[in-house]
User: Fold this.
Amino acid sequence: MGLLERRILEYQIIHTAHPYVKIPLTAQRYLWHGWQSWSLACWTDLSPLPIPCPALLHPMQTDPVYVRERQPHGSWYGAVELKDGSIFFLGALGLGAHVRLDGEYLEGLSEVGEQDWLVAEGEEQGIFDVYSQLLSDRFGSRRRGKAPRVWCSWYSLYTAIDEKIINQIVQQLQGYPFDVIQIDDGWQQKVGDWLPNAKFPSGMETLATVIHSQGKKAGLWLAPFLAVKSARLFREHPQWFVKDEKGHFISAGINWGEPLYALDTTHPQVLEWLRRLMVQVRNWGFDYVKLDFLYAAALPGIRYQDIPREVAYRQGLNVIRQSLGEDIFLLACGAPIFPSLGLCDALRVGPDVSGEWENTRDAVILTNPAIPGARNAIRTTLHRLWLKQIIHIDPDVVYFSQRGNHLTPEQRRLLQDLAQICQFRATSELPQWLNKEEAILLKQYFGEEADVIRSGKYSYRVNGREVDFTSVIPLAQPLTGIGGIGRNLFCWIANHHWALKFIYWQSQRSARQLRQSLDAFAATRSTNWDG
Ligand code: 9PG
Assistant:
């Protein structure tokens, strides 16, 4: 039987707080499904995956409640592949759910009490067709029209953005088929203090006007559920942040060289603050927002109102959606998947790409598939393609240039093809990095949509060309013996604040160097850069 022919599919919906269903045949593989955009989603064999390092980043990369679970497991749903190639599936139709493999059983756990679950057996695609329909009935679907084609500042400039260079790029992108020019991290005073910093002296409204004057929509990045420790927001309103049972602030991870704290979206003053923030972004003139690090509002902890954490998250996101209005395009990133459905227009469905395919330190030593890297991004995105039926899915950016990344032409091609399959195309390429041929290819790519047919579990025909992602999927083998001891030592070192601060300092230094080289490059060109 052909892979994509529908097998007879059996399914039922059960209502319980604790489903425990017998797997009918011997299980061979397990479908992990990570909690938020960056967390791993992948079919693996039945051996447990190593716990990713460093643990200090767990709140930022996985669901910290289940990260130490030893059996195969995942958020909201789980499935096993049976001997005959069919799938046995258990998946919640609501929030706060987790599934794990317990010997010959799939076990469901619910943080919200009794709820509906889909139990199904059959061919994978058929099951996800049913599941996505049931989810869209319950959460709603905002998949409307085509996803916009986005130019995003992050993957070329990182935090080295300022008004001058953005204005230059906006001019240079004239004639490029983008719908949105999106300003990423680097414009704000602090994460938590959402006013422009000294690099944007003319203000955000002016920036949005400049983008509009070139016929493009203006996009802006924010992380509204988070604050760094040094933010005024955190200092002035400590009572707005989620705590643990002992009264300590819960960690939302570490980034920007600082500890991160999570806003309590059940607190009425926080909801009011979120409302004002979104109205401000709207009044500045932005038409598109990339809201990032959203997981923070769904981390476990004590809140003002005693409601399940994913319900608390949805309350916050709901206020955001209402304050933005229906017409602003909302891309959710670093976002818990199910609680975001029906409220945002698009969802990042994998970790960040980055100009590197796979980093040995991250894949083999830290065994962390949530860290930025093209291979990590492709692997997880491929396992979440089914969500496309209910929401636009963002696989992150594609590259065309040989400059500014370490990818081979084949690797760049895989990213480009994946984005065509997702029907969500974005890039960060600087026009001045592209040679003539690359610029033509990029314009062609964004100018036309591809014809895509699925031809196998991990293969597609894209404009008649066979694209096979099978070799991308396997996870690195964990180190054993002396290598394993070395790994543990390295993980121990990496799990210190100063180690993460050092990595941050390095990234800041390379952003500064990048910026200097861009300025030097601009100075050698005859183009009027300030024009
Ligand atoms: C801006 C970036 C970009 C990017 C987002 C997000 O796990 N991590 O350590 C981790 C750090 C940063 C990150 C993702 C994961 O990137 O996905 O597109 O907007 O923030 O800071």
